[in-house]
Amino acid sequence: QKLSPIGLVLSVLLLVLPLVPGMGDRAGGATRWVNLGILRFQPGEFVKLSFVVFLAGYFFRHEEKIPGFLWGMFKPLFFAAIVALLYLLQPDFGSAAVLMVVTLAMALAAGVRLRYIMICGVLSLFALGALIFISPYRMARVTSFLSPWEDPSGKGYQLIQSLIAVGSGQWTGVGLGSSQQKLFFLPAAHTDFIFSVIGEELGFVGSTVLILAFLYFLYRGLKLAGSVAGDTFSYTLAVGLTSLIALPALLNVGVAIGVLPTKGMVLPLVGYGGSSLLVCLMAVGILLAIWRDNLRGLR
Questions:
Q1: Which residues is 40 bridged to in the sheet?
Q2: Regarding beta strands 40-41 and 30-35, do their DSSP bridges make them parallel or antiparallel, or are they unpaired?
Q3: Is the distance from CB of 99 to CB of 55 less than 8 angstroms?
């Protein structure tokens, strides 16, 4: 808690590294990775965790001022906007959007007035919409998501292959390890579209079980937060960490089944991605620590 501002500063400095010539490793049209030769990692994943911890500490330190707009809403969004800007420079629109939503969720948990959150939420939507509109690349993703069959070999190819994979699984799937779409038909089958492969191999039943598992995680995380509501730091931290895993998971599923535009976001705890997996496990570990401390307090 006390070291969270220092942790955030160090994480933000790491987030700048991919933008430094010679340091960033470009892939898929984005420079989100740092390649150290023996190690390749994504600083943006660690920034999400450090920002949630920082924001929980901020709400705790300024607990009495939180209901006001300046301390409760403006300053947290200002901090989030700075980090989001660095994400957009990579570019990583999905992480920027997730960060803003998590910030609003934590502000709501901290006790910020609902009207402030609603106003800032609407303004954030307009800002994100404007960023999509002024970027031909992002607009192409939106248009291909709305009508992928207009360009089945180009912009709509990935979504079409994803839908084919999900549809091929039918009720019980083709069998674990028997997916055909992952054999170089579906791009990013091991990361962003791993849910599509799960849908093909395990079918509607397996996909539903996975979705229910994430929803149960969301329920348990929020229930844990409710049990420590008397401690602003633990309460907002639990809400933030739960949102940090549950929100990208639901967004990833939405992308895979074609109800959301492609965002380049790995499925937490499932998709291949060392940085993402490490951060998710750290978040789960902190949640377990909050649960343990609360259990000791009850005893």
A1: 35
A2: antiparallel
A3: no
Give the lowest-confidence range in 113-117, 141-145, 233-237, 257-261. 141-145
Alpha carbon distance 30, 17 (integer Å): 13
Phi first, then psi, for residue 208 (nearest 5°) are -65, -40
11: left (phi over 0), alpha (psi -120 to 50) or beta: alpha
Residue 29 banded pLDDT, cuts 50, 70, 90: low
CA distance 219 to 245: 12
Tokens of 64: 């009495």
The pLDDT, as a whole number, for residue 238 is 96
Q: Residue 194 in contact with residue 165, Cβ under 8 Å? A: no
The residues spanned by each domain of the chain are 1-134, 148-299
| Count of Cβ atoms closer than 10 Å to residue 47 Cβ | 25
User: What is the tens place of the pLDDT at every residue in 124-170?
Assistant: 888 888 888 887 777 777 777 778 888 788 888 888 899 999 999 89
Q: What is the pTM of this model?
A: 0.90
Nearest to 280 by CA among 235, 248, 239, 236: 248
Pairs from 1-8 (Cβ < 8 Å, separation ≥ 24): 1/53, 1/56, 1/57, 1/60, 1/233, 2/57, 4/50, 4/53, 4/54, 4/56, 4/57, 4/58, 5/54, 5/57, 7/50, 7/53, 7/54, 8/47, 8/50, 8/51, 8/53, 8/54
117 contacts 73 by C-beta, under 8 angstroms: yes
